[in-house]
Specification:
Layout: H1 6-20, H2 32-37, H3 50-53, H4 72-85, H5 89-114, H6 117-129
Length: about 140
């Protein structure tokens, strides 16, 4: 059975928070302007079905200028963030840190199905801190 201990959960969560805590105090950068600040799909006045009809940037998928990047779950998390804090970047960053910690624990659980205890923990620790998870 793929059991994950509380100690391992705390270790992974602490590592994620330690690595990404500084992001909580940063603003929106680069693509965030188009994906969050200018995206009308985040606003409560926009019908929820638009999240499933538009691309990541809020452009209808049927339009030629659409990038065809279809990520409705990501846009849904942005919309939920908008409901709680509108355009406060810290809440968006905080949710990303929390979600990353949860995914790291799930990854450890998955690795336990395939690998021994120590190897799976090392894999999850590397997954938690790997630079591919950032877009600097």
């Amino acid at each position: 059975m793929a059991v994950v201990s509380w100690k391992e959960i705390c270790l992974l969560t602490g590592l994620v928070v330690g690595c990404y805590w500084n992001s909580l105090f940063c603003g929106f950068v680069f693509d965030d302007v188009s994906a969050i600040l200018d995206n009308k799909d985040l606003r409560p006045t926009t019908p929820l079905k638009n999240l499933f009809l538009n691309d990541f940037w809020g452009t209808p998928m049927s339009e030629e200028r659409s990038h065809k990047s279809y990520r409705p779950l990501t846009v849904l998390t942005f919309r939920l963030n908008y409901l709680f804090s509108e355009l406060s970047s810290s809440s968006y960053h905080l949710l990303n840190v929390v979600l990353h910690a949860v995914v790291c624990v799930l990854f450890l659980h998955f690795c336990r199905l395939l690998l021994d205890r120590n190897t799976s923990l090392v894999a999850a620790l590397l997954f938690a801190v790997h630079p591919i998870h950032t877009e600097a």
